[in-house]
Amino acid sequence: LSSVPLQILLYVNGFYYVFYFLATLAMIVYKSQVFSYPDDFLAPDLALLCVMAALEALRLYLALRFLRGSKGNLTEEEAPLGLSLVVTVGSVILSVYFLTWQTYVLRADVILNAVLLFTYGLESVLQVLAIAAFVG
Q1: What's the number of domains the chain is made of?
Q2: Distance CA 13, CA 7 (A)
Q3: 108/99 Cα distance (integer angstroms)
Q4: Neighbours of 135 (CB within 10 A)
Q5: 43: domain range?
Q6: Confidence (pLDDT) at 39
Q7: What is d(CA 32, CA 42) in angstroms, rounded to the nearest whole number?
Q8: Where is the chain membrane-spanning (predicted)?
């Protein structure tokens, strides 16, 4: 009953998020040097990026730990996947912040966040299907 596509997508998203974090951090540094980035907004943007990284680590830990589990792909527990879905909501909100509400939004921000939101949506659908399979 374990979802192999979900597990693969979670692994890929883990690598993509490292790229996303580094690219977003580099863009914030770039924007702070090139544009007149208000000092009052620089620290909150960096703090929110760090909060998002912590949420992403927790989300992936919950989802992957119980999909993989100590017995390989045999642990089929719905509670950790459900918690991962709840944490995904926070990650989605922060991604939308970086997509629309941060001080300066570059085209690269739009592309990075669109890909991230797409993977969050696809993961969520696969997690709901996996939970349904585990329960049913």
Answers
A1: 1
A2: 10
A3: 10
A4: 9
A5: 3-135
A6: 82
A7: 7
A8: 6-30, 42-61, 81-99, 111-135
